[in-house]
Every structure is written in C-alpha cells, then in structure tokens.
Design brief:
alpha/beta
Length: 330
Amino acid sequence: MLRKIITITGLAFITMLLMPAQAAETTLRISLQLPLKSHLGQNLLFFKNDVEKKSNNAIKVEIYDSAQLYKDKEVPQAVGSGAIEMGVASLTRFVGDIPAVDIFYQPFLFDSAEKVRAATAKGSSVRGPIDEAILGTGSRVLWWQAYGGAIMLSKGGPLKTPADVKNKKVRVFGKTLGEFVEAVGGSPTLISGSEQYLAYQRGTVDIGMTGVSGVKSRSLWEVMDTITITNHADIEFIVIVNEKFWQSLSAEHRTLISASAARADIAVRDAVADIEAKAFAAAKDKGMTVYTPTAAEINAWKAGAAPVLEKYKAATGELGAQLLRAAQDL
C-alpha cells in the first residue's frame, strides 16, 4: 500500500514538472505577409517578446509570416471579421472603405523624414483621424510600422523621367499608386508583396514599385538589376486587432498590450533610416545599380503626377480635405 502511494505521488510530481509554469490566458495570432527576417517581422518579434515578458507569459503571441494564413489584401477583412485576432497590412489596403487613407501615397507630398515622423505620430492631425476611421471597419490600429520611401525597380537601366515608364507594365500595391503610374504614362498592375518576385521573374510586369527594405528581405536583386530612388510616396504598414476581441480582454491586458505596441511603434520608426541604408548597401553588394534622380528629373515626375492629387480631392470628401490640410500644415 505504501509503495502504491509513493508511486502515485511520484507520478504526480513528474506530471507537475512537465506542466508549463503558467498557461497563457490569451493568445494573439498575427498574420504577416513579409518574411520574419524582414524589419517588420523583427518588429513583431520585439512586440511578442515584450508582451510575453511583461505579462509573465499570461499572453502568448504567435506570428504567421510570409502570408502563411492571409495575403496582404486579405488581412483587413480577416481581422475585421474576427477570423484572426491581429494582422499587418499595408495602409493602402483600406482605401476601398476609406479612400482618404491614401494621403500617404500622394506623389511627393511627404518629402522629408521630419514630415513623415510628424504625420505618423500617434494622435497627430493626420494619423489620428485615420486610426479613428479604421475603427469603423471592425479593427483597431495598435501601431504603425514604417517601411520607408517608395522606390522603382527596373532592368537594364534607371528610370530617370516619366518617359522611361511610358507604355510599360508597373507593379503597384495600391489604387493611388496605380493612378500615379497612369499619370506618368505607364500601365499599373496590382500585385501583392508576396507575389512580386514571381511577377518580375516571369515578366508579368516590366517595372516594380516597393520599399528598399523589401528588396533585401525578398532578394529582389535576383530578378531586377536597378533601383531608382524616387521617394514619391511614404509606405506605411499598420498592425491591427479585431475590435470585439480587444474589448473582450481585461483592462490590464489591454493596457499592457498598448504599452508594448507603443514601444514597437517607436522602435521601428527610429530604426527605418538605418534599415534603408543597409538595404541599399546590400543591393549594391549584390550587383544592383542605385540611381538618384536629379532635381530636374524629380520635377518632371512631379509635373507628370499632378492629376493624382486632383483625383484624391474629388474622391475623398471631407476627411480627405481634412487630412490634406493637416499634411500641408506640417
């Protein structure tokens, strides 16, 4: 009898050792279209580690990178409907519901790092109304992820002026960017970030549009050979959480997650200049040509793109007018 009691006690002790010290009360699944090695992926890892540490593992964060669960264009609906708790999407993916979000893609509007920083600060006169409008889609914006300025990719030489894209097929990732391409004489094709490598490889498009960090994380030097630094748009991603799920969390958990999100927001914004510099260096090391247009060439791009702003004004109503005034006041 004593031996049986000792055996049962021993088994119970072993079972206790094998059990986790504290099971997670809450799990946050995050969908990301980019690879985990990308700077957006690393930023999510920063958030994951911070949340799990600060919550003593009461909150678990799972990251599904490289579009394992959803493509970029599918994230707003997936998160808004509650199919997944969280996701990362290009800001322009909300243009169907909120046309005014494409303020950041108005050609050459945010033409300095200082303007971008001011516009994307939490609660700013530009970002604040956008975050509030997105809440109406069923998702809450937790933080913004800086991706850098837009560049153009090509083969065989740089894109010095709009004449170099005339009648060419150009990969874009948003409606307004497509209008920019049309205004300067090209033919836009909307292609998800996770699919652009194959598009360049197969010749589906002649020219690419992305951020330079994407060139590095996706090894786009294998399929394109030239970067033209136009910086005609500021590329922003946002990390969103389903609002109903958010409201179901305890006040303590919401406060903790919000604080980690704020730290992640600042961390990626502070790092983006260095990230871009390293990406340009890596592209050059891989044999890519990096071309910076002259002031006269940039003016030619601006002149060609002028109709885009007029379309924005006509399509975005009072919110668009409000954001445009705020942007111009920066």
